[in-house]
Amino acid sequence: MSDDKNNPMGLFKKYLTNRRIFKNREVLRHSYRPHILPHRKPQIDELASILAPALNNETPSNILIYGKTGTGKTASVRYVGLELENASGVTGTRCRIVHLNCEVIDTQYRVLAQIANCLEDHDEHASDSTRIHIPMTGWPTDQVYMELKKQLENSGGVMVIVLDEIDKLVKKSGDDTLYNLTRINSDLKRAKVSIIGISNDLRFTDFLDPRVLSSLSEEEIVFPPYNAPQLCDILQQRSEIAFVEGALDESVIPLCAALAAQEHGDARRALDLLRVSGELSDRENSDMVTERHVKMAQEKIETDSMVECVSTLPTQSKAVLYAMLILEQMGKRIFTSGEVTMVYREIARILDLDVLTHRRITDLISELNMLGVINTRVVSRGRYGRTKEMWFDAATSKIDEVVSRDPRLSDQRLKEIDINRLRAMFR
């Protein structure tokens, strides 16, 4: 303890002097933007060819980009957008990119205000008297739209608006935002607008008015999942910058790639596995990252994502999940939706929750299955029809711990549920 007091770095000295694993772990994070995007040249070239008319002050087609999480959509769009802005500086045209994350900016007001404020921030020609910063709440939406049009006309040139996770905007706020943005060019004389929508959800277009869809999807680009060899290339490229030479066992990158390829070819998953493997090795003061660290990393990531997923569930979903945990405590490894419903009703009665219908409970069970919290299957019972069976894939202690953190589900009365009486109900 006294050594730590006398040393200015104190407790952290040993962590700063040990550089046996990482040179720069930041390149393994999702926010890092590499200069080269392996295995995305066809998509990047197609995107560039669609946006190229902007360099002649012409309106590029609107684009919808689809692909699962971690397939390089956002990174490719940011790369092409930066190249477009650089090229416009050479050609003397005005091309700007505004990139919005619709998981955060998820209402029409916020989208329009954010675009207008980005224009204002980047317009060096605007005088202080013409600069109007739109507050993120408080104005009528029509006024925000009018101000956006004014800012666009004052700036001139071509504005490319990227709506990342566009499905989140549509599901929360409908398609009014897209309706207005896809028609804004008819109200502009000096400026032109092009929209790029990025989505992980191929079905979100079901929520769109056909007129909006036809305007928005003038061009479509699909980003396929990466396969294991492609993920190896991506990890190899990053690892050369991220790790000290010789810090990776030769089997680590192929294993991370293979595990991520099983998870729909997600490059983010592969990078997370590699980074967490390195961190676990680093904390052990090991000289090398090995397969053992990758297996530990996989378990840690799955547990962490499960905890986050369960902790953010609404109370009714947690109540259904709690019913399953009670059934497992009763020794049932596989249980039916009917059994879950019976236990859930007991929990809802004790907690004074609105009791959901069996149909709604079945919907919540399907959502838990989609999130990977449980596994389900539909089985035939002959003349008794079909029923849904479910089970937990792994140990439930962590799930139980997270569910019990919910103030309502930590109610002491739940501890008094009569397991024997429940068992009798199932006989």
Quick gist of this model?
The protein has 3 domains: 41-222, P-loop containing nucleotide triphosphate hydrolases (Rossmann fold); 227-309, Helicase, Ruva Protein, domain 3; 313-425, Orthogonal Bundle (Arc Repressor Mutant, subunit A), CATH 1.10.10.10.
Distinct helical segment count = 18
Distance between the ends: 62 Å
Structural class: alpha/beta
Shape: globular
- At CATH level 2, the architecture of the largest domain is 3-Layer(aba) Sandwich
| Annotated CATH homologous superfamily of the largest domain | P-loop containing nucleotide triphosphate hydrolases
Oligomer type: single chain
Fraction in beta strands: 5-15%
User: Would you state the CATH class of the largest domain?
Assistant: Alpha Beta
| Helix content estimate | 40-55%
Mean pLDDT: 87
CATH topology of the largest domain: Rossmann fold
Poorly predicted regions: none
